[in-house]
Amino acid sequence: MLKLASFMTRPAAKYLLIVLALVFPLIARNEYQVYVMASAFIWAIAVYGLNIITGYCGQLNLAHGGFFALGAYTLGLLTGDYGWSFWPAFVGALLMTAFIGFLVGVVSLRLKEHYFAIFTLCVGFIMYMLTDKWEELTHGPIGVRDIAAPHGFGIVDFTETTPFYYLVLAFLIFAIWFMGKLSRSLLGRTFMAIRNGDDLAQSLGINLMRNKTLAFVLSTTYAGMAGALYAGMVRFIGPEDGNILHTFDMITYLLAGGIGTLSGPLVGTVGIVWLTQSLQFLEEYRMILFGPLLVVLVIFFPRGIVGSFLGWLHRKTLDAGLPAAKQKESRIATGKGVENNA
Length: 342
Hints:
By secondary structure, the chain is an all-alpha fold.
């Protein structure tokens, strides 16, 4: 078991997962399963953005779903109302979410802890209300229709499910690659220092406002990317796509997978999306089963699936390399009880 766990942390495991993702459309039973997986990948990109500001920087942004909708609406309006093609509109969606994220971040990040969370919750609700009530711009409850799909090339047609799946997969791989580079960089370590405490970070000479704002902008850009891809896939956007509940869904995905980990957002998002799909036969009663499953997950895996696995692997690695007399000390140091080994 330890050898298997060790293998999962090696680069070879990452390449294996990429291969599995590439062949998934070939082994899927129907096109709907490919669509569900593409949708899960899109939400995973958004959750990776939430992981930057919340997992690495320690700021709980409850407006993340609003920025997802902002990216979707920007692309939808530019292509549906103003006749832009997909890719210029896609770049416009990224720039818009980054710009609005900068404005919101400059104001909100002056607040701390729950005050910041409450402020961003209000921002997310305002963004939702604007999409619903500002009919001259967003078409209100009618939503935005006739959203353009990405331009294909040769025999590749992104209006079809499988080619669009591979497009989303490419963006997901890029998002994870960039997150990995960020987490190992000086900037990523700066974010983590801020998460560990503002006072400690300031004592190290870190500019809190500048780095928090940068983390917020990166986070909202991820959300805008996911929202734009979502709009290009479903070809219709309505106010409910900006519902504040989507933010809490993404928080659930992040907590289930492992907050502050590299693979946690992907594991949590794909796992829960497919779990909810498998419980669809229960219709409105599926949440009665889904709720307790989440409670059990939080109780037995408080650091998420990936976070708990990495903690277990760390303890096993320490114990395997230590003499028996030192194993109690390693368990105490890693927070594991030693009652059974006393």
